[in-house]
Amino acid sequence: MKIQVRLRAPKGQARLEIDDESSLKDLIDLIKTETALSSFSLKYGYPLENLDISPASQSATVKELQLRGETIVVAPTETPISPPADAPKPKPFTPKGIEPDETSLEWPDRGGHIVLRVMPDDNSCMFTAFGGAIGLENPSQVLRNQVAEYILEHPEEYSKAILGEDPERYVGRMKQMDTWGGAIELSILSDIYSIEISSIDVKSLRVDRFGEGMDERIIILYSGIHYDRIAFCMDLSYPVEVDVTKWRTDDDEVLDKARELAQRLKNLHYYTDTTDFVIKCEICNWIGQGTRQAAQHERETGHSQFGEMTIK
């Protein structure tokens, strides 16, 4: 008799169909094929408990193990690959008043944690957040050039009226490493890479979706003047290189969990109110208020290095 087993793995959910007289080994092989994982542990039941998958137990049948209708959680056990000790590490952006244990939420149903990966505060945070999620190394310049080419190749869609300035000038600024990226760039990157980008605004908890209708999504977090990446990890001690950062767009649970993390960060005031914060140009010491004035100053002068000022 065929039975169904629900599977929850880091990259999403699936339903497996298997004969109830099949062995546990058969089920394990099916899970390996479905998840592309070679080494893992399995958990099931409520509360979750380990399923014994040692060689001595693999001859038991699915029927004997009473797995009909069960939800099985797959937890990878491959040894994480650490980067070389001498690899350069970017200076991270330090969230104001936020402790590391406040930037993650345990996710027992999937056997891991949803976590905020904080990007460097270098005016390229959006490009770094997106590029890292799709697996690019040192992505900022690559993505900037791709965005620039896309704009020039689509003059009717990205005209002066949309960009707020001549496309050639906009493209020239966007190629500079100190120019911020935003909604226009997210929309373009979604088209280039055929992936949905779900951007969660910390202050409003609104989810802006770029590229709806795609099969996969990544999730980033916007905190007013900064972008970070949302990821899933099995263990908080694992390096970011083994994070899961892409999910199927029909996996709404991960988006709900990311918003839950955003709610926690909102409660901790991990955002900048861009309507009235005071900003200073680090090139000419101009001082203005809010992102609208900053954008106008950038258009008029080409200066794009800003910092938030604290008024005492």
TrEMBL record:
Hydrolase that can remove conjugated ubiquitin from proteins and may therefore play an important regulatory role at the level of protein turnover by preventing degradation. InterPro entries: OTU1_Ubl, OTU_dom, Papain-like_cys_pep_sf, Znf-C2H2_OTU1-like_C. It comes from Lasiosphaeris hirsuta. It holds the Pfam family OTU1_UBXL. This is Ubiquitin thioesterase OTU. Residues 81-93 have a biased composition (Pro residues). CDD domains: OTU_OTU1. Residues 77-105 are annotated as: Disordered. It is an enzyme of class 3 (hydrolase). Gene3D superfamilies: 3.90.70.80, Phosphatidylinositol 3-kinase Catalytic Subunit, Chain A, domain 1. GO terms for biological process: endoplasmic reticulum unfolded protein response; ERAD pathway; protein deubiquitination. PROSITE patterns: OTU. It is found in: Cytoplasm. GO terms for cellular component: cytosol; nucleus. It catalyses: Thiol-dependent hydrolysis of ester, thioester, amide, peptide and isopeptide bonds formed by the C-terminal Gly of ubiquitin (a 76-residue protein attached to proteins as an intracellular targeting signal). Transmembrane segments: none annotated.
